[in-house]
């Protein structure tokens, strides 16, 4: 059963125990939702859905349907995307790989993102789509200085996911917010994500957590010290841990490991991060690494029954593997052959017989002489 505990006031730092802490999800279920694995992103995905003409320079094909309404003008949108030059397999940008979604204020985007903005404005939260953008709404006649592989007059292809958006009037960007406003906005998203998690809507929950994390980008965190940094981490770290819980549910174990590792880079003794990373590693068959995580978690939470159970499970797996290997080798080489008695040498037997015969004859002649 998934248990959730909430405290409306931010705490200075994330709880390091493996029990339910402020704003963090404790997962005890073992069932998982099966989803289609993400594509590797080396080339634009092959999409068979109908082409929707948004205008004469932007077209869209839906990869995955979204939910809710579409963002309005000046909405602050959070998106992930990959970008290619049309007709080329060369990918020149990938926010998924960088693990940082971008913020796009519709109607205020950079000139080279005009086509991307038009596409995003016609998407719903959670929707993933393929956008075909004419060069005039991309990098134009001169191409890109930042991406030399984008030549002049290059048509573009985007694989885009709209994580979510804030429909704020006049579009207040993160950079225009105070520290308190950004932390508050992130905390709102985290709470919404927790509600989705309770409903077992793991994809929707992750969208909310990812939006919350987007308010806490590296550039923002780098500027924070003291109580403000503690306040931000008290929201940011639970979001990473809750994303890891969702990803484990969705059997996306590599991504879950990455989320836990982000938390451990800030708090190397975080028991929840160690435990969940251990779970994900165990599912991937990385037994030794998983055991290392569980043992370290046990060091800081020695009475935790979940940790003890996982360590026992690993020990049982090791024992079962040993028995299996033992049986395999036994069957491979067969039973050890019984030692055979050495064949007696014929000459040795003959010589012994001859000596015995001569001895007998000698005794016989002696008796006659007497």
Question: What do you see in this structure?
Answer:
This protein has about 375 residues and is α+β, with helices and mostly antiparallel strands. It folds into two domains: about 50-165, Chitinase A, domain 3; about 175-330, Alpha Horseshoe (Serine Threonine Protein Phosphatase 5, Tetratricopeptide repeat), CATH 1.25.40. The chain is about 45% helix and about 15% strand. The protein has eleven helices and nine strands. The strands form two sheets. Strands 3, 4, 5, 6, 7, 8 and 9 form a seven-stranded antiparallel sheet that branches. A two-stranded antiparallel ribbon has the order 1-2. Helix 4 (about 200-215) runs antiparallel to helix 6, helix 8 runs antiparallel to helix 9 and helix 9 (about 285-300) runs antiparallel to helix 10. The longest helix has 29 residues, at about 305-335.
Index terms:
370 residues, alpha+beta, Chitinase A, domain 3, Serine Threonine Protein Phosphatase 5, Tetratricopeptide repeat, seven-stranded antiparallel beta sheet, two-stranded antiparallel ribbon, 9 strands, disordered N terminus, repeat, peptidylprolyl isomerase, EC 5.2.1.8, TPR-like_helical_dom_sf, peptidyl-prolyl cis-trans isomerase activity
């Amino acid at each position: 059963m998934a248990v959730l505990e909430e405290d409306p006031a931010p705490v200075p730092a994330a709880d390091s125990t493996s029990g339910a802490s402020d704003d963090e999800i404790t997962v005890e279920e073992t069932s998982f939702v099966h989803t289609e694995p993400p594509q590797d992103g080396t080339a634009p995905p092959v999409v068979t859905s109908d082409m929707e003409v948004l205008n004469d320079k932007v077209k869209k094909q839906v990869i995955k349907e979204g939910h809710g309404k579409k963002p309005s003008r000046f909405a602050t949108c959070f998106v992930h995307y990959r970008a290619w030059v049309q007709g080329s397999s060369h990918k020149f940008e990938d926010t998924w790989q960088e693990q940082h979604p971008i913020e796009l204020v519709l109607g205020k985007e950079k000139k080279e993102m005009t086509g991307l903005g038009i596409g995003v404005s016609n998407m719903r939260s959670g929707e993933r789509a393929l956008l075909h953008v004419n060069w005039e709404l991309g990098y134009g006649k001169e191409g890109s200085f930042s991406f030399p592989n984008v030549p002049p007059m290059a048509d573009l292809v985007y694989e885009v996911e709209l994580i979510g958006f804030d429909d704020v009037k006049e579009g207040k960007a993160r950079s225009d917010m105070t520290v308190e406003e950004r932390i508050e906005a992130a905390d709102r998203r985290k709470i919404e994500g927790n509600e989705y998690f309770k409903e077992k809507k793991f994809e929707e929950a992750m969208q909310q957590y990812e939006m919350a994390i987007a308010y806490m980008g590296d550039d923002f965190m780098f500027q924070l010290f003291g109580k403000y940094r503690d306040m931000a981490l008290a929201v940011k770290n639970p979001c990473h841990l809750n994303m890891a819980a969702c990803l484990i549910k969705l059997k996306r174990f590599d991504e879950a490991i990455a989320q836990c590792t982000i938390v451990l880079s800030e708090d190397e003794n975080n028991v929840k991060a160690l435990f969940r990373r251990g779970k994900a590693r165990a599912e991937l068959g990385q037994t030794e690494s998983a055991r290392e995580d569980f043992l370290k978690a046990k060091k800081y939470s020695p009475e935790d029954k979940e940790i003890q159970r996982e360590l026992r499970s690993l020990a049982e797996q090791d024992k079962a593997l040993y028995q299996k290997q033992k049986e395999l080798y036994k069957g491979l080489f067969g039973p050890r052959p019984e030692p055979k008695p050495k064949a007696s040498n014929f000459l040795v037997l003959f010589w012994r017989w001859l000596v015995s015969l001569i001895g007998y004859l000698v005794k016989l002649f002696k008796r006659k002489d007497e």
